[in-house]
Specification:
The chain folds into 2 domains: about 180 residues, Glycogen Phosphorylase B (Rossmann fold); about 150 residues, Glycogen Phosphorylase B (Rossmann fold), CATH 3.40.50. The chain is about 45% helix and about 15% strand. It has 16 helices and 13 strands. The structure holds uridine-diphosphate-N-acetylglucosamine (UD1) and uridine-5'-diphosphate (UDP). Uridine-diphosphate-N-acetylglucosamine binds next to α1, α5 and α11.
């Protein structure tokens, strides 16, 4: 029987495939091959998640690395196609919305290998966001569409996708629950932080951090918050490069900046933060699960359930607007939120069951 290729390439992919692999492993490990495209390659952007989430060694590492969108997508496509010709997988499973997701979906679909998409149907309706293009293309090419929320199914039907839609819940939450069981308070102790006495920040969207004016604005926002509460900022490599290039890094004097954090360290900080300031997709979902207030510095979100049901709110890149919301949070007047349906730790097993019968 032909094997199923499961693909991952960048940080947010690893949390999404880990629970599926765990479930598949308990079924029949030999039926699956794990492919790492190499889009993310630093230890703290990749390997640490394999260790902490118990993901097995990839069967193939494509080494795509960084580049412009076209360069990176092309590198993943050509190397993945070559690998497919050699290994002849019967099916391909991709996750999320990064360039590796779309590249492998295109490469596979063009040589008639059926594709399954984990986390399909999310839409920001903003095509200036590179991920939106990746989402639309991947969903159009996928025969199995695994969704995390009700809105996703509506979006997919509107676009007349041909694949079978399965509302399976959110595998990111499976990983969150998995790692939460291992938290021991050590991260807070090591960093000298007290519960609910700090704000956690992550920023890496090109629209926010590649643009000089927006990055300067963000730096002022962080400095403003640091006058109210401690600010902890694990810095994504894209953001670090730009903070250094534009000379804003030195200006963030009272902000505790760190390298990207491993998953356990990051989740411990996230769970115990007073609030989180972010532009990440996954972090919006995780804070909703933890019921920690989240301010998302973006004009839109492909995860509206985190706003309508969860603790998330969108916020303009405007210091006054952000500080106003921060004061509401500190004054304990933020919404409490609830956990969306099927964000229950069982998405991986639902996906694995469907894959087993595919
Ligand atoms: C990518 C995804 C984005 C996702 C993010 C998660 C696309 C289009 N974007 O953005 O959806 O939210 O990952 O973190 O796929 N770099 C390193 N070390 C690494 C990886 C990257 O230093 O291990 C640096 C390189 O300078 C690189 C830059 O970060 O040029 C950007 O990396 P890239 O993968 O192109 O995009 P991300 O911003 O990470
Ligand atoms: N994350 C992490 N360490 C960090 C920042 C984020 O482990 O320093 C985790 C976070 O908990 C979430 C995932 O990375 O599970 C989100 O990835 P990212 O924000 O890079 O991508 P996005 O979700 O925006 O695509």
């Amino acid at each position: 029987m032909k094997k199923t290729a499961i693909v991952a390439g960048a940080r947010p992919n690893f949390m999404k495939i880990a629970p599926v692999l765990r479930e598949l492993k308990s079924n029949n490990d030999d039926d699956f091959l794990l492919v790492h495209t190499g889009q993310h390659y630093d230890y703290l952007m990749s390997e640490v998640f394999f260790k902490e989430l118990g993901i097995r060694e990839p069967d193939a590492f494509l080494g795509a690395g960084s580049g412009s969108h076209a360069e990176q997508t092309a590198k993943v496509m050509t190397s993945f196609e070559k690998w497919c010709f050699e290994k002849n997988p019967g099916r391909i499973v991709v996750a999320g919305d990064v360039n590796s997701t779309m590249a492998c979906a295109i490469a596979g679909a063009k040589i008639s290998i059926p594709v399954a998409h984990i986390e399909s149907g999310l839409r920001s309706f903003d095509k200036t966001m590179p991920e939106e293009i990746n989402r639309i293309v991947t969903d159009q090419l996928s025969a199995l569409l695994f969704t995390t929320c009700m809105e996703a199914e509506i979006n997919l039907k509107r676009e007349n996708t041909f694949g079978n839609i399965h509302f399976v819940g959110n595998p990111m939450i499976d990983s969150l629950i998995y790692i939460s069981e291992k938290l021991d308070g050590k991260t807070l102790d090591d960093m000298g932080l007290d519960k609910r006495e700090y704000c956690l920040v992550t920023l890496h969207r090109p629209a926010n951090v590649d643009d000089r004016e927006n990055l300067e604005n963000l730096s002022e926002i962080l400095n403003g918050i640091s006058e109210i509460i401690k600010v902890v900022f694990p810095v994504h490599p894209r953001t670090l490069k730009n903070l250094e290039y534009y000379g804003f890094k030195e200006k963030l004097k009272n902000v505790l900046m760190t390298k990207p954090l491993g998953y356990k360290n990051f989740i411990e900080l996230e769970k115990n933060a007073k609030f989180v300031l972010t532009d990440s997709g996954g972090v919006q979902e995780e804070t909703t699960y933890f019921m920690v207030p989240c301010l998302t510095l973006r004009p839109n979100t492909e995860r509206p359930v985190t706003v309508t049901e969860g603790t998330n709110e969108l916020c303009d890149l405007d210091k006054t607007a952000v500080l106003e919301k921060v004061r509401i949070i500190i004054g304990q007047k933020w919404k409490k939120g609830s956990i969306p349906d099927f964000w229950d730790g069982n998405a991986g097993s639902r996906i694995a069951c469907i894959l087993a019968d595919w």
